[in-house]
Structure formats: C-alpha cells, structure tokens
Amino acid sequence: MAELSFSRENKWLRRLLIMVSFVFITVMLILPLVQVLAQVWDFGFKNFWEAVTDEYTLKALKLSILTMISAVTLNTLFGLAAAWAITRFRFWGKGLLITLIDIPFAVSPVIAGLVFIMTFGRLGWTYPFLEAHDIKIVFATPGLVLATIFVTFPFVAREIIPVLLSRGTDEEEAAMLLGSGFFQLFRRVTFPHLKWALLYGIILCTARALGEFGAVSVVSGHLRGKTNTLPLHIEILFREYHTAQSFSAAAILVAAAILILVFRNILEHVSEKDREF
Amino acid sequence: MFIELENICKSFGSYKASDEVSFGLKEGALGALLGPSGSGKTTILKMIAGLEIPDSGDIRLDGARVNNVHPSKRGIGFVFQNYALFRYMTVFDNIAFGLKTRKTARAEVKRRVEELLSLIGLSGFEKRYPSQLSGGQKQRVAFARALAWNPRLLLLDEPFAAIDAKVRKELRSWLRSMISALKITSIFVTHDQAEAIEVADRIIITNHGRVEQTGSPIELYREPATPFVASFLGESMIVEDYGRLLGFEGAPPNSRGALRPEFIQIYGPGEKIQYENSVEEATVVSLAFRGACVEAVIDLHGFQLSSGYSLEKPSISVGGKVKVLIYRLYAFEGDKATLVNNSRLEAHGNGYSFAI
C-alpha cells in the first residue's frame, strides 16, 4: 500500500498515531480477552472441564448453535434476495428498502426484543391466535431465532450489495441474451463474483448471532436449560457468584470468536488472490 | 427494411431517453448510431436487443413485431461496451455459453468454438481467462461469443471505446471486413464520427433522444438536414447574418448558417481567378502549418473563417490581402438546415459537381 507523503515527512505524527492505535486496541480489546483466558487457566483444567461439560452449559451451547444456524440461514437467503432486488431491478421505494435494511444497526437490541414481546407476547395483538393454536414464540426458541435474525439482519445484504453494484449487470445481460435461465445465470455468472463477499457476510453474521445478548435477553424468559443461550447462561452464572463456571463458559465464546477471526483472515487472503479476475 | 423502429418512446422518470425514434436498415447493412454521449444511442440498442422495453412504438425484425419477444428469442448477438466477458470462465466456455444453453451436442459445441476461434485468429487461446487477454483480444472473443449461435442481427455498443488508439484502427477495419464477409446485418453505437464515416453504410444521428437524420455518410456530410447534423459532422463554422457575404444577399434578416472549410476558396496574389465577379477581398489573420496544407484564418466582413491553403500556391502572409470565393453554405431556419449555393455561381451550374 502506498504511504501518504505527508505522513512520511511527519515522523512523529506517524509514530504517535501507530502507538495510539496499538495501545488502544491492547488495553480495550486484547487485555480483557486475555484476562478471561488467564482466569480460566487459574481455575485449573479440571474445574474448567467440569464447568464446560455441565448439563446446563451444554444445553445453552446447543441452543446458541441452533439459534445461530437458523438465523444465519434465513439471513443469507434474505440477504441474497434483497441484494439482487436492489441492484438488479428498478422499482419504487428502493431507497426506502436500502434504509430499512440498516434499522438493526440504528436500533438498540433491547428495543428489538421488546418489539417481539409487544407483537407475540401476552399483550400482543397476535396472542389470541397463537394461544388458540398452541404456538409459543416468546419465551421459546422461535422468539430467540426471531430476535437474533432482527439483530443480524443487515450483515449479509450489506456485504453483497456493493459487490453486485460495482460489477454491473453487463455479464448477466449477456448471459440472458445467450439464452441462460435464471438459476444457471446465478450459478455460473453471478455467484462466482459474490462468493467471497457472501462468505464474509456469513462469518460476520455468525459471530454476531453467537454472541447476541440484548434482544435475546428480552424474549428469552431465562428458563434454565430451555431458553438460555450461552451468553445469557454466562451472565446468570456470574450473577449467582459462580465465577469459575461463568468464566469457563465465556472461554468457549472467546475461543469461537478467535476461530472465526482466523477463518476470516484466511478467507481474506484467499479472496485477495482471486481478485485478479 | 430488415430491422425497423417506429415511433419508439422511452423515459426513465422525467428523462426522455428516446423521443419518437424511427429508422430502418436493409438486410446485410452496417448501420452506426452516432451522437454525443447522453443522446440515447445505447438505450436504442438495448431496446432492439430487448434489454430495455420501450414505453410505446414498434420494433420489427424481418417484418415481425418483436416488442414482446424474449431477448434470447430474438436472434440477436450483442457485443457489450466493456465486452462483458464472463470473468470466471475460459475463452472456450465464454464462446460456448450460448451454444450450451441451447442444448447443442458436445461435439458440435467443440467444432463451432474452434471454427470461431480460428475466424477471430485466437486458436490456442481456449484455456485462457479474460483477464489474461489484451483489450483487442477480449473484443474479438466478445464478437465470437455473440456470433456463436448465428444471430440474424448483430448489435455492438461502443465496440472500440475501451481500446487504445493504435489497435482501434486495426480492429475497425478487421470488424468491417468480418461483417461484410459474414453478411450479417449489424448496428453499432459510437460517438466518434470518424469511426462512423469509415465503418458504416448508413448512419443514424441521434441527439437528445431524437433521430436527427438517417443516411449514407456522404449524404449526411453533404446535405445535413438540421443545424445539429451540420455542426456535429465534419468541421463547421457558424456564421450570423451571412447576407453580408457576396453571393448570399438573398438571406433573410437575422440569418444563421454554417460554413465548412472546403466551401471557402482562397486565391493568393497573382493567382488566376475563374469567377472574377464572385470573389471579394479579405485579410489574412493567421497561418498555421498543418503538413499537407496551411490552415489560414481570414477576416471577411468581420467573419473569422478558416480554410486550407495549398503550399503549391502563391505565398501569402499574415496581414496581407487575399481574394475569397464562398461556394455554398448551410442556411439554418429553426431546426432545419438547407444547402444554399452562391447565387453568382448559379450560371456555372448549381450544387456539388463531384459525385462518388
């Protein structure tokens, strides 16, 4: 990458900025994470293993993974559809749609949770119907999935839209003129362009879905072993002074985050190579 | 007419991209859609291909209305401005794409692609990716891909715009000879008049979404029907109130018109003048060497006119007097342009005498 000429002249400014960045990231991000792992180390492996293999911790982990997979799958499908519509069609209300996709970035997750309570909860307008058909949404798994979807809504679409916009529609128009149907066109012409952006979006979405706390906390009802995801479980353990168990469970999330980061970096490296096309 | 557009209108919001566009092209002809950028050329091309749908009007191909025919069923080959080659496919797969979507047998696909590759002179490039080709080679692959399924009409959007000047000339004559050899009706879009004049049989001039004039290059150049065509094609100088010029006294008040450099004959000192009573005196303002001739700017009744002056003629100098004859000019009236000949020359025969 080219360096700006003024930053080369201003040696001190350059050093200062680099130092500030490093110190900030170390103090704010790395130290707390290392602290979690160090704590776990202090408890000893046996305690750690007991905490991690605890019945409720495992159940919370399972629920977290189930929620994450559902939310990521649905958001991937939605993201592809929205990105395609926004970049490939002319329609009224397109600007509005683009703005709406960003709502989860602007709205506090707590509000997202409350919205679902107000819609599907005891006071919600759909409650009589749900009650009559014995459908449970709030304080059950569907509510957790809905809340997670809401919060992780923009990630996939936001990653794909710029790629589709910058690539233009020429190749697709060419394929259509050559007699290609939609699915062949998507698979052979469009998908190769957006696969890296899509994967990247999915990874971000996964990381966010796994760690989601706020919105999920509102709709969960905190039923241990039933509606507690891992982040909620960690908080409960912590509040009940089970510090060791709490940190051990947190270590799982930290490990998952590190894994996701590593995967993300590999992906960036591979897609960089692919960019020559 | 093989391809015919009638009263085509197309708007994008409040912007009128096509306004009552009508023109036709005979089978086997090579037409150019020529106009400044933003004049609606590409929109016309995309509507013919079916990539845009006209708001009103008819598009007929070989006599049949195709407005509601799916783009892939119109039998049209399209070469995009930036080629739009499939970046993640090899040259072979790019050219074969249209054949495969139409369920052609594998052996036939291979035969046809090889035939096309040798036609465009790129045999042996099957396994390359578009990123490994030069601009000219990409252009040829795009051309072969468009031709793979033997279209009845070939459309090319700014086919030479993205290619550097050196290769462009070569590719132009290559394309011209290729199209004549294949006898395929073709339309290409360009904003470069030299390109249109050199390559096309027929030129359709567009401006602000309207068709200004259609004709052969020489017709358009010699007899422009509108002020826009007169000033867009070739070099021209706008003259106001040209009734001041000798031989054009019949001009209406506040007249406007255009002169081309070749409409002006400059006689140096001592030169023999054929039509003695039709010339008037002018002052040389500047001289610039242009290789084959000298470009002289003269002052005639306050008009600054420029014209070529042969180096074989008697020498002239800045500030010196010369005799000038104006053969003809284009008189503008509203959105019409008409050719007006020097009235003093009428006795000697009217209009252009040179026929090609």
Description:
The complex is a heterodimer of chains A (277) and B (356). Chain A is mainly α. Chain A is built from 15 helices and no strands. In chain A, helix 3 packs across helix 15 (243-274) and helix 14 runs antiparallel to helix 15 (243-274). The longest helix of chain A has 34 residues, at 55-88. Chain B is an alpha+beta fold. Chain B has two domains: 3-225, 3-Layer(aba) Sandwich (Rossmann fold), CATH 3.40.50; 235-348, Beta Barrel (OB fold (Dihydrolipoamide Acetyltransferase, E2P)). Chain B has eight helices and 19 strands. The two termini of chain B are 24 Å apart. The A-B interface holds A 170-171, 173-181, 184, 188-189, 192-193, 276-277 and B 49-51, 71-72, 76-78, 80-82, 84-89, 97-98, 101-102, 129-131, 145, 148-149.
Annotation keywords:
heterodimer; A: 277 residues; mainly alpha; MetI-like fold; 2 domains; B: 356 residues; alpha+beta; Rossmann fold; 6-stranded mixed beta sheet; 8 helices
